[in-house]
Design a protein that fits this description.
alpha/beta; about 45% helix; globular; electron transport; Glutaredoxin
């Protein structure tokens, strides 16, 4: 599956789907974003079971602000609706492939437990 551009309205429904969703935040004026785009596209084609989404931060400024995107490109990975990775900066193909493998290998029961513990500890 190739990459797909998503809007602010589509963001929540896209990331909350079961499975893995990567989101690339980019803009047209950003050189590193342009260099990262073909890498992202290529890895998306090798992983048809994963959703590779793209958000144009110029077109979707409200979403970028909500998510506190301060540098682009920023890559986020969600699995079953849970944010499991967020990092600014373009990744080389090998690093992106390692990230995909890492997210695939996560023990989601453990991740959900950590999220629940984190949320419980912040409810004073």
């Amino acid at each position: 599956m190739a990459t797909k551009n998503i809007t602010t309205e589509e963001f929540q429904s896209t990331i909350s789907e079961d499975g893995i969703t990567l989101v690339d935040f980019w803009a047209d004026w950003c050189g590193p974003c342009k260099q990262f785009a073909p890498i992202y596209e290529k890895v998306s084609e090798a992983n048809p079971d994963i959703t590779f989404a793209k958000v144009d931060t110029e077109a979707e400024q409200q979403l970028a602000a909500q998510l506190q995107i301060t540098a682009i490109p920023t890559l986020m990975a969600f699995r079953d609706g849970i944010l499991v990775f967020s990092q600014a900066g373009a990744l080389p193909a090998k690093s992106l492939e390692q990230l995909v493998d890492g997210v695939k290998g996560l023990d989601m029961d453990d991740v959900r437990k950590q999220v629940a513990e984190h949320e419980a500890s912040h409810q004073h």
